[in-house]
Write a structure and sequence with these properties.
This protein is α+β, with helices and mostly antiparallel strands. The chain contains five helices and ten strands; from the N terminus they run E-E-E-E-E-E-E-E-E-H-H-E-H-H-H. The relative contact order is 0.17.
Amino acid sequence: MSTRQINTLVGDHRLEQIRFASEVAAIGALRCSCDSPYFRGQQVTNNFVVAFPRSALWIHQDRAPAFVAASTVATIYNRGQHFERRPISPDGDTADWFAVSEDVVRDIVAEYDVEAAGLAAPLRFTHVDVTPAQYFAQRRVVEGLHGADRLAVEEHTIAIVRDVLHSAQHVSGLASRGALTQKRRDADRRAIVECAKAVLSTSC
């Protein structure tokens, strides 16, 4: 993963600020307003990314139903992931993101899913709710980048990505127990929850 490849979107690079970049990990900030020509339409990621939204919007990855991305959620992207946005907050899409190299992400995935680690798209999850501890951990890293040791930043970035992916796997495992008999009911419930999130985000 070279620094020339560290961009989460195909579009105007002025929308993104690369805060840290090495061959192992990268951290960046995305600020894409609703009126940007790159907000709408299909986008594609260039890296394996975990992002922490700072505004509310709909995200629709081409592998799963649309969901509401907000500050209580971490969004998860494979490299080459196609997705589209729909607005909720007038701020558009604002997020801080953490990327890791392909070998690192595959090593992390292999810790909980050896089969998925060998796939072209090893990240099977689109998003997961984050705990307050996870949210503040990534904020501490972003806000402490100035003058930070490179190896320490890499270690913190990998730890954040690992923690989010393991959380997503844990939630998925809990949901799968007995889920086959309630598949349609669960899908309807998720749709209602996502719509409620959108309404609440608009009202805030």
